[in-house]
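Please, structure for the following, as tokens.
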Amino acid sequence: QVQLVESGGGLVQAGGSLRLSCAASGTIFSINAMGWYRQAPGKERELVAGITSGGSTNYADSVTGRFTISRDNRKNTVYLQMNSLKPEDTAVYYCNADLVSLRRNTYWGQGTQVTVSS
């Protein structure tokens, strides 16, 4: 009964910005952590940024200083502000949540495409 839906992806030129959002809905009692992963063609999925319910954050070295993750716990929503985008940021971005529904589980969104042109 839990669903994660990402939005905000699109096509942007190098140096531009995008803001991704992910809203978790359904039977949710609490969220321990949410994060963003990405997967580029021919590459494995990698962690981009994560945030706990208490606000602790971590970032991949490749995005530190350019991306900012934030959350609204009351709305079960996580955001990823992406600035100074580079072509190598091109990937499908997936939302992830470690949450408690009827039981504690990890859930994934369907992904949103981010394409950065040269």
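The first strand starts at residue 3 and ends at 7. The CA atoms of residues 14 and 86 lie 5 Å apart.
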